Amino acid sequence: MRPIKLLTIDDDEHVCELIRLYAELEGYEVLAAHDGAGGLELVYDESPDMIVLDIMMPEMDGWAACERLRKDFATPVIMLSGKGESYDKLRGFELGVDDYIVKPFDPKELMARIRAVLRRTNPSLYHEEIVKLDELLFDMRHLQLTVNGENAMFAPKEIELLYFLASNRNRVFTRQQLLDQVWGFDYDGDPRTVDVHVKRIREKLRQFGIDCKVETIRGIGYKYGEGGA
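Structure tokens predicted for Response regulator transcription factor:
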């Protein structure tokens, strides 16, 4: 698979360099622009897969750049800002940004948010398109699942949750971590949503005679192991 192309638009060169260092460790190809107009030129010329966009920039700020961007592109955008007020976040989401993170930020958290946005917006880009794990064959482009050669009627979020757990075998995740990774950091629903989806996954796999390997780790969350509740 080709590397994911990440574009950072920020007038602070140190921020761009910090993001580049961490993003290249993730295997991304990284581009940078230091003003909104230059960033838009790179969007048209390079077609990035993800954009990290600062708000406070000279000449064309992040608000104006995002508004222009959304007229022609659906490229996922994470907005960076020194402003953490609810009004600014709401304005960003109304303009069509996919996530909003306040400066100063933890670059590891930013990378996690980028992964979460990509999983939601373009899972086939982030993952191999066809992946076989045990008896399960995942088609991540079309969000379809085949169990022992038979098509299985799973909801998209059930497939994404099962894929995430199965591709991280024996790693324990809390409910909140699963919400962040599968539903996204901006999801503010009930953590018991995870329990409901796990229950449905187990029931549906049982119909195929499969012992579900998603295990409950009491008091913590879930892992994909050797099977059993």
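Residues 49 and 223 are 30 Å apart (CA to CA).
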